[in-house]
Amino acid sequence: MHDQKTMKIPAQGAELESWLGLADISDLVPQGWSLAGGSMMRLLACERGYEGSRATRDIDVVLNIRARRRLIGEFVHALKSTGFVIDGYNASGQNHRWVRGLAQIDILVPSGQSEKTLSYDFSGLGKVLMTRGAQFGIDRTSSVAVECAGRTFLVNRPDALGALYEKCSALLNNGDTHKQRHLHDILVLVCLLSTSERRDLIGLSGKQRSRLAWGLRRALAEPGIGRPREREMAQDIVSFLDESLKN
């Protein structure tokens, strides 16, 4: 699905270069991936008219390798074809970060992959770097037209509910040292939920609703983050989820 409205991202510097890098990738690999992380937050906030979205220099992309495993090879080929190079292996043997000048794109895959997939050295990528909750976001992904520095291109991103689940799940990622960033984003995303996305909450599994409630509680327990309205709406969602889990 393609949401027709074109969203203008007011980026500059490294952030601008990263978005333009993604534009080049999108031309070559238009489907099979979804935005994540700070760039996902940036786009959703712009789409829904929410002030205060934070700029981020890098772009996180999750590949839907459950649907098509060879997508990794296609995406790596697109990165190389557009001038991106590996930024080196991390301590776990993954080279998920690719750079082109100031541009930076990080490649992730959903958690829950087989042991064979986890241990496999993919050509040009090494071992995959997983992130929790990403498949839920992929399953709620659609495309939106983005304009950046006069260039228009399609970007795949989850809706606000998909993003909220991803952010709550990211609190469970091992080795993630930026938990407060996720907690802040969780409170913002509650305010971005549409009426239909709120209705979708009741159709989630008990496990999914429990994870959302847990993540929201973590955010509410963190002092000094979130606007009063964000915290109020988060508490309302927690109360709704708690009540639904009693049934």
Q: What does the secondary structure layout of this molecule look like, with pairings?
A:
Layout: E1 2-8, H1 13-28, E2 33-36, H2 37-47, E3 59-63, H3 71-81, E4 85-86, E5 97-100, E6 103-110, H4 115-119, E7 130-131, H5 134-139, E8 141-148, E9 151-158, H6 160-170, H7 179-192, H8 195-200, H9 206-221, H10 228-246
Parallel strand pairs: 1-8, 3-6, 6-7
Antiparallel strand pairs: 2-3, 4-5, 5-6, 8-9
Helix pairs in contact: 6-7, 6-9, 7-9, 7-10, 9-10
Verbal overview:
This protein is α/β, with parallel strands linked by helices and 247 residues long. 47% of the residues lie in helices and 19% in strands. The protein has two domains: 1-158, Beta Polymerase, domain 2; 159-247. The protein is built from ten helices and nine strands. It starts with a strand and ends with a helix. The mean pLDDT is 92.
